[in-house]
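User: Here's a chain of 136 residues. Predict its fold as C-alpha cells.
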Amino acid sequence: MSRGIMILLVAVILILAVVLALVLLRYKKMEKFADRAMIQANDIMEQLILGREVKYFSENEDSLLGKFQARAGRLYDIHSAQEQREKELRDHLPEAETAAGTSGGFICCRSGIVKGRTARKRYLSGRAAGSESLSG
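Assistant: Prediction complete.
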C-alpha cells in the first residue's frame, strides 16, 4: 500500500511539474508579446514626435493597442492642424501690421485690437486705473 501511495505521489508531482513548466512557457511568451507591443507603441509615439505617422496595429482591431494607435493618430492630426493654424496666423500677422501702418505692434483685448505704443500705454494705464477703482 505504501508503494501505491508513493507511485501516486510521484505521478502528482510530475503532473504539477509539467503544469508549472507550461505556465512558465506561457508567461515567457506573453512577456515577449508585451515587450514587442510596448516597443511598437513607443515607436509610434517617437515617430509622431518626429512628424511621421506609422501604423503597426490594425485600426479595425478592437484591442487596446489598436485603440491606442487610433487615439495617438487623432492627437497627431489635431496637433498638426493647430500648428498649421498658428503658422497661418504668423504669416498673416505681419500683413495686418503693414496694413494698419504701425510698427509698434498690437495688443489684443476684449474691445478689439489696440495698435501703436501710445495707444498701448493708454490702454494699459486705463486697465490699471480700472483695477484700482475696483479694489478701492
